[in-house]
Design goal:
Length: about 110
């Protein structure tokens, strides 16, 4: 009974992070911030949900660990790829953005290749 309660609480916290991710996606001012909000919160939320599932199905421990490892590898990589694609397509940044390091790097690369 207590293991199910612990598992349920962990799953609840994971669901809360997933809810915060969806709210962050709706409230952020530009594509870059939306990608960041969605990726960070969904990574932690999904890991918490999967960790809570271990308490319900202890025989799935190794499968869930593999899933968590896969999530930790693929979520940041996909976020990075989406952000670079958005930048390359010319997605506008919010006016509050002060530094565009990717633009600065691409300008330096152009100067070095000329």
């Amino acid at each position: 009974m207590t293991t199910e309660l612990i598992g349920s609480l962990i799953i609840l916290f994971g669901a809360l992070f997933l809810l915060l991710a969806s709210i962050g996606i709706l409230r952020m001012p530009d594509s870059y911030n939306r990608i960041q909000a969605g990726t960070k919160a969904t990574t932690l939320g999904l890991i918490l949900v999967l960790t809570g599932m271990i308490f319900y199905h202890p025989e799935w421990v190794w499968k869930i660990i593999v899933l968590i490892f896969f999530i930790l590898l693929t979520n940041p990589v996909s976020s990075h790829a989406l952000t670079k694609a958005a930048h390359k397509c010319g997605a506008k940044m919010t006016d509050d953005t002060v530094i565009d390091q990717l633009d600065e790097l691409s300008q330096q690369d152009e100067k070095n290749h000329v």
